[in-house]
UniProtKB/TrEMBL annotation:
The keyword Cytoplasm applies. It is found in: Cytoplasm. PROSITE patterns: G_TR_1, G_TR_2. InterPro entries: EF-G-like_DII, G_TR_CS, PrfC, RF3_C, RF3_GTP-bd, Small_GTP-bd, T_Tr_GTP-bd_dom. This is Peptide chain release factor 3. Belongs to the TRAFAC class translation factor GTPase superfamily. Classic translation factor GTPase family. PrfC subfamily.
Amino acid sequence: MSHLSIKQEVARRRTFAIISHPDAGKTTLTEKLLLFAGAIQIAGSVKARKASRHASSDWMEIEKQRGISVASSVMQMEYKNCVINLLDTPGHQDFSEDTYRVLTAVDAAIMVVDAANGIEPQTIRLLQVCRARNTPILTFINKLDREVREPLDLLGEIESHLGMDTIPFTWPIGMGKSFGGVYDLQLDRMRLFRPGQEKRGTDEFIEGLDNPLIQEKFGSAFDKAHEEISLIKEATPDFDHDAFLAGKQTPVFFGSAVNNFGVQEVLDALVKWAPKPGPRQALERIVQPDEPKFSGVVFKVQANMDPAHRDRVAFVRVSSGKFERGMRLKVSRTGKEIRPNNVVSFLSQRRDLLDEAYAGDVIGIPNHGVLHLGDVLTEGETLQFTGLPFFAPELFQGVEVKDPLRTKQLRTGLTQLGEEGAIQVFRPEAAGGALLLGAVGQLQFEVVAHRLKTEYGVEARLMPSRYTMARWVTSDNPKALRKFMDSNAAHIAYDVVDALAFLITSPAQLRVAQELNPEINFHAMREHA
Ligand code: GDP
């Protein structure tokens, strides 16, 4: 049992995710952060998980790993008296809508950039979600032990993609074979690079930029860095904590995750600067994190180990109060009571951290379809939080059942999988149109086909679709909406909650539709109703 008050427990929470493009070094950084925080066992399982994921590109393997993946989707560690929750975003080949939604449950993000590649496509997609929510972002530029791009170049690129000022906290001296280390602009000292460094407390520093020792050791690499640092000091604004919290500035760190270098600076900055859990807006009122009563929201639903039993785990981010095992909770949407006893354990450094949860923490509640995405759990009050987003799919496939006698099962299955958020299902308005599946990751289709078969006994046939985009449409003018629907009847569909969507084959088609229909709003995102 904690001897701290709810307010104190909330104040020491830091909940974040790491976003990156595959191979930028997210797994490595995760592992090193855990090592620095002393969570050695968790670090081991992170590596194991990635190894197993790479052992086979066959998603069936991933299916088998679901148990591991549930457990390691939230990692909890204690560092400098803070409780840090690291939420995994599967940014790899199993990229899916879940990845986006996880970002709605964090208070900050660390962006990992491969210094040779700069900002890459998958990072951009994830950044868009962070930007839409003004999530504060720390930037880690990785792989300085290789020949990489010019640091100033990288900063420019990051600024233009993020629309944020980059504030270097450290600056690299040399790169690749001549990588000497990083200069800490906050502490005015250089940390010397040693490859393969595993232990802590053995670091070497040289104090002061004008220290002749640095010049002596690193020669021209230092001269260049010195010039750049002077330039930066002149050209960049001071770090402003409020600007960071508002998502207007990102502190930047250079390093090499695999060499355990530059990682501690990021962890220290996270603890020092990243926000504690804040208030959350519900339709009814604003919910403060340190209110005595528990509330939480389901931001992700994942099928668990035993697909035959439709066993799923609802991931609940605590918004307020204190969760304890066995407490009675009410689902706001249905009024149903649940009493979660067998809460799923995520990876935690300390047993006692698992027994209670505060704002910012995540609990996993196994259930059989009682809990849906976006559901709010409370001690009795009815609350509805806004802001759980559904993103317009980028990939589409038509779906038909092989055996027409199973049509009903197909509909049931797709409705349930749609509610769970595994895939988006569109029902075309035009009579006779096949149901359409929409996803942001290719793997979602395979998972859904497999689950239809194993959980609903339906052999589904997936067919290519000409659609490449969708937009939800609304209008303040019902007549204009009617007219739009009539003139685009072949492209109109409804999603699982009967929201109206416009199916599109090309960006040009969208542009034309927008020009012709000024009274129609086209939305790339729909918030959970
Ligand atoms: P993820 O896909 O983003 O999780 O990337 P990983 O952490 O698995 O890293 C991808 C590859 O880059 C692996 O082979 C790592 O060993 C390598 N890597 C990670 N960090 C560094 C680094 O600082 N320097 C170098 N040279 N390689 C790195």
